[in-house]
Structure formats: C-alpha cells, structure tokens
Amino acid sequence: MTVAQIIILCTMVLYLGFMLVVGFICSKKNNTSDDFYLGGRKLGPFVTAMSAEASDMSSWLLMGLPGLAYLTGVADAGWTAIGLAFGTYLNWLFVAKKLRRYSHIAGNAITVPDYFKKRYHDNSNLLLLFSAIFIIVFFIPYTASGFAACGKLFASLLGVDYTAAMIISAAVIVLYTATGGFLAASTTDFIQSIIMSIALIIVFVFGINVAGGVDKVVANAQSLTGYLSFVHTYNPKTGTSSPDGILNIVTMFAWGLGYFGMPHILLRFMAIEDAKKLTTSRRVATIWVVISLTAAVCIGIIGLAVSEAGALPILKDSETLIVNIASLMSTHGILFAIIAGIILSGILASTMSTADSQLLAASSAISKDILGSVFNVELSGKATLLAARLALIGVALVAVFLARDPSSSVFGIVSFAWAGFGAAFGPVILLSLYWKRSNRWGALAGMISGAAMVFIWKYLVRPLGGLWDVYELLPAFIVALIVIVVVSLLTKAPEQEILDEFDAAMKAE
C-alpha cells in the first residue's frame, strides 16, 4: 500500500469514526420508539432538507450520473437530472406540509405504513401489512446495493478484500443507526450532504484544471457529434449520435415521479418540528439538488476531457470516474491525498446516507408495523426500543448476505426499487392528501397494482422493446392512480369521521 493510499484510508477511517460518535450522541435522546423512528418530530428545517436529499441521492449522484454523462453525453443524464429536480420541488411543494400535518392529526402516525392505516382507519391492518411488506421487499436489496457499493469502493481503490470492506462498512452504518435511530440517521445525513457537496466542488475544479481549462472541456465536448445535445445520444463505440426520441426523454424524466413514494424522504416530512418551516426546507433542498445534479452531469463532461488530455485512460467502467480522479489527485502530494480521501468519503457518504435511512424504514416495518400493529405484540418502552434495534440488525444481516457477491448489481437494483416505491406508495400518498373520496380499498388496490405492475412491466412488457421500452415507474404509477380512483368509487364512501379528519388536516396551520 502506497503512502497516498494510507493517507486516503486514514481520512476515510476518521470519517467513519466521526459517524459513530454522532450516533452515540444521538442515542442519548432516544427514550421512546417515537424518538427512535421519527426523532420526536424535532428536526430543524436545514437538517430536514439536507438529510432528505442526501438519503435520496445515494452513490448514484457521485458515480451513476457522472458516469452516464461521461459515456453518452448530456441527453440521458440531463433529462434524468431535470426530472429529479422537478420531482424534488413538487414533492416538497405538494406533499411535505400536508403530510406533516395529516400524519400528526391521524393518530400521530410515526411510519409510512402507520400513516396509511390511520389515514383510512383501516382496522383490518391490510394497508399496514402490505405497505410494510413492500418496504421490506424493496428496501432490503436496496440496502444490500449500498453495502456492495461501499465494499467495491474500498476494494477497487485500496486493493483490500471486498467482503471484509463491505462487512466493516455495513457494521459502521448499523452501529450508528441502531444506537441513534432516526435522529442519528438524519444528523449524519446532514453532515454527509456537506461532504458530498465538498467532493463535487473539488472534483469539478480539479478536473477542469487537469483538462486544461473550461475552453478545452467545451471544445472536446463540441468535437463529439451530439454529445452536448438534449435530443441526441452519443455512442462512444461508433463516435456518432442517434436521435433521442420522445419516448426515451419521457422515460428519463419519469424518474421524478419516484419521489412521491420514497418512505425515507416522506419520514423527513413527518419529522420536522414546525410544518411552517418546510417552506425553508423546500428552498434549501431544491437549490442543493439543482446545483448537485448540474455539477454531477458537468463532471461527466469534464472527466471525458481529462481522459482526452491523457491524464486518465478512457474508462471501461465510466461509473468509477470520480474514484479515478481522486486517485489521480492523490499522486500530487500529501495535501492532495487528504483531499482525495475527502472526495472518496463523499462517495462513501452518499452511499451511507441512503443505507441508514433504508435500514431504519425496513426495521420499522418489521418491529413497529408488523410485530406491533399487525400481531398486537405489546412491549414496554425499553423493550420496544430493543425490538427496533434487533429488527434493524436482522435486516442488515440479510442485506450483507445479499451483498456478498462483489459482482452484484448496484444501480440496476436502485432503479428497480425506486420504481417500486414510486408506484406502490406515490399515488396513494397523493390521493390520500388531495382526494377526500379515496378509501382504504382503493388505496390497497392501488398499492398492490402499482407494485405488481413494476414487476410485470420490467420483466414481461419492457423486453418487447419499441414503444414498450419505457421505464416501469411511469406505467405502474399511472395504473395505480387509475385503480385507486376506480376502486374507491365502486366501494363504500369513507365514514364521516374520516371526512371530518380530512377537513381538519386540510385546514390545519
């Protein structure tokens, strides 16, 4: 191991140690399961905003998006970024305040399944059970992909054993999340969003400098046919471009729909101390997302110019772009090796900030929703906290088992899970907040049909190609919306108590 690698490793170890300290400090504030799962609804506007977006972006922001831009140009990466930016803003604008107020009025719900149960007064617990199951189904492999990303980062950069690196990374995430709960996850996510931002800025500036300046970066991109076009996709194998049809643009843009159903983001809305402060959170979150996504796409373009300048080889795996730039930086001296360690900690942060939230949501589905609500297991305050932590550890162990293969897919799983949550929960959330006539049967049917359509479209319809080659989130989301409306209208209208509760939630300030 070289001196530069040792410095990078030490920097990242310090970062991981700091996360554990934060978890220990936050653990002192967990006295009840409400504190563990929702932080006692005491989050400030900045922590709410930044932790929500950090938990959302994952390593995709620092690896997937720059890699896509590096390989195929602006179109696919750009439309995806635009869709995500719009989805972020609309989610904060139309869902955040209403969900915060309604979840409090509806029996002080502290998890997403708990909100569905109490919003629709579903004494059968079917809504709660199915939503908890979908959280487990989609989040455990999603968490595994995060653990795998951490293992691959250490293994590819430092040459250490993948399995050992993956398990150690998972252990750190589990420790600070199991001790500090939601508050630790949100606080560390806030810190991690700052680290991610610093990483993006450093790579952006260093990349331009190595490439020979902004003019060289722009000139290189302009020399490639269709590379800077929003309506053409560049093909690196042929050096040509092909028209980016409206279908592909819609597919990329449709990623934004996923935000309405992301449990780890919805929990941040429910946890803020004062609903009125969500306006500040919305502005902070939107600005950060727009700047971060723009920087990530630009880094892909800059990275290709760095390769063309001869500072880096043309990358076979474009998603390792920032890792390679950090490695290049580390060869410039001790100070740059420390900075490289910060950059790579940013990648680690982006992965950890998603994995901790996923762990918390999946474990709450088991201990709070299924064990506590469905099977009516009554536990004391301390026993409930213990059950929550044991469930979290159990989920993590399954995720570690799934991540044991170093060749396992990371971003394919992210894409599929994103579609699953967006289609299963998004339409239900929107109609629960905006349509008084929606009822529990409509919500249940919509949830099941949305999740089922993701599988059907992904594995049976989309492989047909042509007009059917659309990201599964879009058709599944539309189907779920239609099913909720149709089933709600064909079944009994909500009781007056539910209608009065809806009116109270809409009038709440």
Structure description:
- With 509 residues, the chain is mainly alpha-helical.
- The chain has one domain: Sodium/glucose cotransporter (Up-down Bundle), CATH 1.20.1730.
- It contains 19 helices and 2 strands.
- The chain has a two-stranded antiparallel sheet with strand order 1-2.
- Helix 3 (45-57) packs across helix 8 (162-211), helix 3 runs parallel beside helix 12 and helix 9 (214-222) crosses helix 12.
- The longest helix is centred in the middle third of the chain and has 50 residues, at 162-211.
- The termini are far apart.
- The model has no long low-confidence stretch (mean pLDDT 83).
Topology (SSEs and partners):
Layout: H1 3-27, H2 33-38, H3 45-57, H4 64-72, H5 74-105, H6 112-119, H7 126-158, H8 162-211, H9 214-222, E1 232-235, E2 240-243, H10 246-253, H11 263-271, H12 278-308, H13 321-330, H14 334-374, H15 381-402, H16 411-434, H17 440-461, H18 473-490, H19 496-507
Antiparallel strand pairs: 1-2
Summarize it.
It is built from 19 helices and 2 strands. It has 509 residues and is an all-alpha fold.
